[in-house]
Amino acid sequence: MSFVYPWFLWALLAIALPIIIHLFHFRRFKTVYFTNVKFLKEVKEQTSARSKLKHLLVLLARIMAVIALVLAFSMPFIPAKNGTSRAGNKDVSIYFDNSFSMSAESEDVRLVEKARTRITEIINAYGVDDRIQILTADFEGRDQRLLSKEDARTRVNEIKVTYKVRSLSKVLARQKQAVKAGNNRLKELYIVSDFQKNISDLDMYQDSTIDLTIVPLQSVQNQNVAIDSAWFQSPVQSLNQPNPLIVKVRNLSKKEIPGLRMSLQIDNQTRPLGTLNLPALTAIYDTVDVPVLRTGWHEAKLNIADFPVEFDNDYYFTFKVDEQVNILQIYQDQPNQFIQASFADNDYFKATAQQVGQLNYAAFAEYDLVILDELPSVPTGLISELKNYVSNAGNVVLFPHPEANVADYNNLCKQFRANTYTSFEEQERKVSYVNFQEFIFNDVFEERRSNLKLPITSSNYKFSRKASTQEEVILRYRDGGSFIGKYKMDKGHLFLCAAPLRLDYSDLVKNGEIFVPMLYKMALSATSENKIAYIIGQDEVLETDNRTTTAEMVYKMKGAQTSFIPEQRNMGNRMVLGMNNQVQEAGFYNLYLSPESVLDKFSFNYDRKESYLSFYTPEELVKLLGNQVAVIEGTNRNDFQEVINAQSKGSPLWKFCLFACLFFLALEIALIRIWKV
Question: What CATH number labels 90-220+615-649?
Fold first, then answer.
């Protein structure tokens, strides 16, 4: 047994008062007349003995009443079994897990509401002089303070579900930081959560200076289906084409989910996509055709019908189909007519031919593909501009001149860490391999025929192979050498061809099944390959073309419910945008310099960590954290308030002492008035 106010036990010295009264209380004697004194001695002896017994019992009742009253004021209590209850004011930190997984249902309400009730009961168990921190997954600055009891109750009622995910090790570190800053000697921590396994990274708790109590909440059934992610099969979306989209849907339940409905909303038009049958604890992949009937930006959203955890039912994504694909053909004497003819009948492509000596380097950013059409040499200034152009998502294809300055060509290749050209040889070589897995040819042919006619070259260059280069072969000769190779640099690509285009050296231009779609796809691969979706809290940096002309121009982002100014870093013709946790809700966000002109569209989705409904049981938490931590099941426990009171204050005994005091006072009165001696 312990005491809240042990110094009050000095009041037990008051026991001396009834003893003194008993010892120095002299009664006045009355004269009693007896007609017969025969039995006087016997009566006197009997009366004296009964009187002494009565007085001793009255004295004992008075002493016990004083003792009980003193004990009541010293407020004795029995400490909790784990020994955490100690007397004095406390600094308390309570973590309210308000993450998305707390949207699951308990038997009567959602877990987040159950947590709100339990935390209020915890607060009620403390005194007005205790200081309490309410910490949430938002990690807001205002929640680093210790509050009064009333302010803590108000803060709990303000908390809403958040997209943010916090590991419990970081939560515990913040709680300790807050209570250590308090002025009270005693420190206590509470964690009220569903204790998802993927965020519960706590180890054996061994801090004897700060008491930790965890309150696990459990849902009725752990059932959830989530759209995990989605991506286009092709990095570039084409006009009037189906554009296959791969969708990954995950069943996180331990039972099969049949007939799950999925739909696609694109540009405010909803299309049902049928139903899915999901085996237990399995992810499946489905292919969805996304129709593109116009150019420009498109907003799309995938949706599934799943309850009660709904934050992961939607997957937002955006993509852009360029209004026009611009191609620049750079030549020395005469432009190759076959290149011009390939784009002449398609309004979607616009090919411009310019002589190498008349180039406007500043206009390179306007083109999606640059073709070096058999240049005898490549000036150093052009090489530098091409390197900068490719670094910023441009694509360059080089068709060599039969009498090229190989040193200039190799200077270009070295800038792109590509294989270099060797001498020009008059040797017939036949292409025997097409890389159908690469973007250039992956969806060109409905059937991959064995009799597909492939190019033959009568004269060509060979490439010196280096281990440090990372070539992706597009077309390969029968002898294993590369006819056309692809090299990635930053966001763009360099394509190198081994033979000139003119018919004297190659019949590539006569192979319409290869040449025309190859040029088309090279041009398309240079268009924007931005991510179609970002994750809130993870993807904090975006990139866009720099359209600013003055330092005063500022980019802004606007969503359905909010707008803000992102952090901006000028990187030449690119602008890097930092979100800094300003995106709070999933959906579409427009980037603009002026509200009437949308420059880019971005889509954000919630982190799917909260989709995994796998939780620790109270028994597992005891094994994980050790016996020094108190574990109180918080979902269905009816005596939770009493348990928390005992946890924070122990089992109070002052009421029993008060009742004992009243009992002994009543006993004293009864002895005096009823027992006649």
Answer: 3.40.50.410
